[in-house]
């Protein structure tokens, strides 16, 4: 099994999500905000969470070397959320995504982790551009993307998804 890099910020550890995160992923995927803004993944047991990690998260990590990272607070090793770079069908290039349990919102953790993931994408994986998608009703996500330096590009639809999305993009400074 390959070893994938873990990253750190001042307060956080960003570790590639693995099957040991199943109970946390189960909780995250079933948050009302996840279902509202990202979609119902129909994961309702720890076994289904393990299968989701094995079929939806790990293959991209193994294929590309990056993917979904579990965000862990250093001070107490609490799993708070996820942040990562995703190779999404119907989208040119990679996009950044993030989601946090409600208890850890509005404390700068999403900004801190997404800043690190953006930096990793640009420096380690050498992307010239990183995209982000969000629903028009997800104002918090749009505000975070703007704070991270992303700019709105256009509205779009992904394959097999009836919801209109907003595409944001960040291009590496020359």
* Helix count, DSSP H or I runs of 4 or more residues: 5
Portion in strands: 25-35%
**Which sheet architecture does the biggest sheet show?**
5 strands, antiparallel
Radius of gyration from CA coordinates: 15 Å
List keywords for this structure.
174 residues; alpha+beta; Aminopeptidase; three-stranded antiparallel β-sheet; 8 strands; globular
Q: Could you describe the 3D structure shown?
A:
The structure is a single chain. The chain has 174 residues and is an alpha+beta fold. The protein has a single domain (7-171), classed as Aminopeptidase, CATH 3.40.630. The chain has helices at residues 22-29, 32-37, 46-64, 109-123, 139-147, and strands at residues 7-8, 12-16, 68-73, 78-86, 95-100, 129-134, 151-156, 165-171. Strands 1-2-3-4-5 form a five-stranded antiparallel beta sheet. The longest helix is centred in the first third of the chain and has 19 residues, at 46-64. The protein is globular. The mean pLDDT is 95.
